[in-house]
Write a structure and sequence with these properties.
about 450 residues; alpha/beta; TIM Barrel; two-stranded antiparallel sheet; 21 helices; globular; disordered C terminus; tRNA-dihydrouridine(16/17) synthase [NAD(P)(+)]
Length: about 450
């Protein structure tokens, strides 16, 4: 069946009632009983694919869209606990009546950054009826987190981290979870994970990069250290985060780490289909940009969410990032929009993109061109793809003018190993060999 702009528009231009009816058949309602560990995980449907918490990115409209493309569980953007607790105007900007609605936005974990246990508890109390758990951000590596003393910059203050989590665990009616980063030291990373679990975290997400790995220094997450931590925290519900570029990376991650679920952040932002694992449908795993953009835009237009409206421009640029490299005249059209632009201005942009993609599909050779080509096996275990520019695809940032998928990248926590003596010699050699090996040049 040929997908056209007209058919996409007819499909997504439903009312809010249509969206609610669609989602209500899939999402479980939250039990009023406070659940822990495995019981909590099962109560939210034992999710396998997760949209990460991202500042101004994983808001309501994006979560609705992501669930359509394979996400089993979504996290909210990171909210500032003190501002959320003390400023109504901030809360109103960040969250709407539909956030956490059982029929369209569950299961949901709402995340806060904090460095004050009481402010964190006050903020969490305000969302007890809007989510299935509250998460403490211990992974944000950005400069704003350094200035505000939260996120990964609490990694030196274990006492405070314990107090933040434990205060929620003891006084909140719903469970608390947390997301952390690793240290270069493997055993310190294990001890850190065990500490947050001891404090009361019922589900643990570990990002396989260190705090310094961000921006052009992002590098590769280390799945071996995630496996190492997973093996040492018992039956803890464990989510792995990092290196999810394509849908098949999810199965590789499960097989390597034996985690309960896989979380995607940047991969999801540029292509929500990264989390689609039900089949190899190209229109789900690498959706056409016109299809996805129309679908996303109609969701934003159908809901009353100030946060979603504010995030729209950023999502447009990410969805279209490769398409815009071939249609540079569209950049200023999107760039001049604002949160105050009327719907017609946005709709005109979507229509223009639909028109240009339609012209591509009028090409006599489109069936030969509209394919995803799989490259050779890379040293890190996966394979790169060549994806048509009119389809959603990963973003590879440039370092000194060279794309990261064509250069050598550092693997997190690979230079200061602390491998326990109870591992077999063969396991030691295998781990050291894998961690010493860096990503090779992209296969031609």
């Amino acid at each position: 069946m040929t997908v056209t702009a007209a058919s996409v528009k007819d499909t997504v231009q439903g009312t809010m009632k249509d969206i609610i009816n669609e989602a209500s058949t899939k999402l479980p309602l939250k039990d009023s009983t406070k659940l822990q560990g495995r019981e909590l995980y099962k109560s939210i449907g034992s999710p396998k694919t997760i949209v990460a918490p991202m500042v101004d990115q994983s808001e309501l409209a994006w979560r609705i869209l992501s669930r359509r493309y394979g996400a089993d569980l979504c996290y909210s953007p990171m909210y500032h606990a003190r501002l959320f607790a003390t400023e109504k105007a901030y809360r109103d900007r960040m969250i709407s009546e539909l956030d956490g609605d059982p029929t369209i936005d569950r299961p949901l974990v709402i995340q806060f950054c904090a460095n004050d246990p009481e402010h964190l508890l006050q903020a969490a109390k305000l969302v007890e009826d809007k989510c299935d758990a509250v998460d403490l951000n211990l992974g944000c590596p950005q400069g704003i987190a350094r200035k505000g003393h939260y996120g990964s910059f609490l990694m030196e203050d274990w006492d405070l981290v314990h107090k933040l989590i434990n205060n929620l665990h003891k006084n909140l009616s719903i469970p608390v979870t947390t997301k952390i980063r690793v240290y270069d030291d493997w055993e310190k990373s294990v001890d850190y994970a065990k500490m947050v679990i001891d404090a009361g975290a019922q589900m643990l997400t570990v990002h396989g990069r260190t705090r310094d790995m961000k921006g052009q220094a992002t590098g590769l997450a280390n799945w071996e250290i995630l496996k190492h931590i997973r093996e040492r925290v018992g039956d803890q519900v464990f989510f792995a985060n990092g290196n999810i570029i394509y849908p098949d990376d999810i199965e590789r991650c499960f097989n390597t780490i034996d985690c309960d679920a896989v979380m995607s952040a940047e991969g999801n932002l540029y292509n929500p289909g990264t989390l689609w694992t039900k089949d190899n449908d190209i229109n789900k795993q690498f959706p056409r940009v016109d299809t996805l953009l129309r679908e996303y835009f109609e969701i934003v237009r159908s809901i009353k969410s100030e946060a979603s409206r504010h995030c729209m421009k950023a999502h447009f640029f990410k969805i279209l990032h490769e398409f815009l490299n071939h249609n540079t005249d569209l950049r200023p059209l999107i760039g001049r929009t604002s949160v105050n632009s009327d719907w017609k201005e946005w709709d005109d942009i979507v229509k223009e993109i639909e028109s240009r993609v339609e012209k591509i599909y009028q090409d006599e050779d489109i069936e030969e061109k509209d394919i995803v080509t799989v490259g050779g096996l890379e040293s890190w275990g996966g394979k790169y793809r060549e994806v048509p520019y009119w389809r959603c695809q990963p973003y590879f940032r440039r370092v000194d003018g060279e794309k990261q998928n064509t250069r050598v990248l550092k693997i997190a926590a690979s230079d200061k190993l602390s491998v326990p003596t109870n591992d077999s010699n063969s396991t030691n050699k295998k781990r050291k060999g894998e961690d010493a090996e860096l990503i090779s040049k992209r296969s031609k």
